[in-house]
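pinging the channel bc i need a second pair of eyes. not urgent but kinda urgent?? the chain im working w is below, pasted from the shared doc
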Amino acid sequence: VARLARAQRAARIGTWEFDLRTGDVWWSDEMYRVFPRDPATWKPTLAEFFGSILEDDRNRLPIPMTPPASSDSPYSFTARFEVVPGRVRYLRVEGVVECDADRVPIEMFGTTQDVTDHMLADERLREYQRQLRELASQISDSFTAYGRHSGVTNTVIFGGVNQTRQVDMLARGVDVLVATPGRLLDLLGQK
């Protein structure tokens, strides 16, 4: 048990169980760290758990509140949770809904992992890629403007858009190629 608790803490993964018949809830110690609450003074509820999902995210999630197609139906999602007022974390939820013989949900259990650092890093990467595409476009525009009477041709290639037009431009030949590294390496790898 101590090893599992250490592993959960290292991975920031908590485990939980919700008994849908009795309303009883069990959370691992790590769940109380993900949702910074004192287990001696706070008892989680299913409604509070799902209610802490930000509304924008809640409206698009496959939250399993209807009888699943079969017993032991898994579900997973990543969403923003307001773990305490004013503090939002990205959490990855993996769970199973267990049903009785009549397909009535009787229990939910699973894991919740704090993936905030990963999600914020992804957002920073997407912003960096957007800025890199913008810079490549600006450089290409400058080549076009400054070289319009020189006969020097240029084109720009970058990811995030359909590559067909970019490949066509390269096939016609250019004097100056402005490219983001990812798209350039991708196109070179396709040859």
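so The longest helix spans residues 116-146. and The mean pLDDT is 87. — does that match what u expected or am i reading it wrong
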